[in-house]
Amino acid sequence: MYETRSGRGGPGGGSRVRLAPWAEGDLDLLRQANAPELMTHLGGPETEERLRERHARYVALSDTGPGRMLSVSLPTGEPAGVVGYWEREWRGEVVWETGWTVLPAFQGRGIATAAALAVAALAAAEGTHRYLHAYPSTANLASNATCRKAGFTLLGPCDLEYPPGHPVRCNDWRRTLAAG
Fold it and tell me: What is the DSSP letter of 153?
């Protein structure tokens, strides 16, 4: 379990979140994160079969790496979202990529920023890659703001596919994890 506090937020100095490795019991959280309003920028909600496949990939990644998928919860234990990081080849080098989802009831509280900061710290601790990238859709204002608040630098727009076959115009945000 990893607990962190963002530098922003309300009284008390920011949002606190707990991250835990993705586990078999997190399938319902993934179902909640599959809500239409949360999947707008990701090609729309997935079928139950695809959710189960993604859940199995998340469990495997958390068990064997490289990278991790994690559930995000409040200090009370209430599930609030999903965050993770994984390897991707990007412009001739291997980097970490990150992404997150915060359930609607918990949005606007700094939870995404706290989770992004926590996952950056975990990725940096691995000492494997120099950079952590995030690729939110250019239309996803909330995730772009999270990148800025979490210390990522905007490198500019790029074109990706997510899911495969679904083109998305994204922003390439990068956070340096280690020198050299």
Answer: E
Three-state SS at 116: helix
Residue 104 phi, psi dihedral angles, 5° rounding: -50, -40
- Half-sphere exposure of 116 toward its Cβ, with a 13 Å CA cutoff? 31
d(CA 22, CA 69): 5
Domain 2-176, second-level architecture = 3-Layer(aba) Sandwich (3.40)
pLDDT digits (tens, 9 = 90+) for 105-155: 999 999 999 999 999 999 999 989 999 999 999 989 999 999 999 999 999
d(CA 159, CA 102): 24
Backbone phi, psi, residue 53, to 5°? -65, -45
Residues 176/131, Cβ–Cβ less than 8 Å: yes
- pTM tops 0.90, yes or no: no
Q: Please name the residue that has the structure tokens 């949360």.
A: 38
- Strand segments, DSSP code E, in 75-152 are 79-90, 93-102, 131-134
Nearest CA to 137 out of 128, 129, 146 is that of: 146
Three-class SS state of 163: coil
